[in-house]
Design brief:
3-stranded antiparallel sheet, two-stranded antiparallel ribbon, mainly beta, 61 residues
Length: 61
C-alpha cells in the first residue's frame, strides 16, 4: 500500500510530496529534491501497514 507524505526540502524550503510503501517495512534512502536536485535522506518506520514515524534531513556532506 502506497501513502503520500508531505515534506519541506531542507535546501530550498519547497514543500513536496513523496510516496512511501507501507508494506515494505521500515526504510532509509536518499532521494534528490525534485525542485533543487539536492540530496535528502528519508527515514520511516511502519508497523502493521501503518506509518509510525517519518523523518528526513539533508544528505549533503
Amino acid at each position: 500500500m502506497l501513502a503520500e507524505q508531505k515534506y519541506t526540502c531542507p535546501h530550498c524550503w519547497r514543500t513536496s510530496v513523496i510516496q512511501i510503501d507501507l508494506t515494505a517495512g521500515s526504510q532509509s534512502f536518499v532521494q534528490d529534491c525534485e525542485v533543487c536536485c539536492n540530496p535528502i535522506e528519508f527515514r520511516y518506520e511502519t508497523q502493521s501497514g501503518e506509518l509510525v514515524s517519518f523523518d528526513y534531513e539533508s544528505a549533503a556532506g
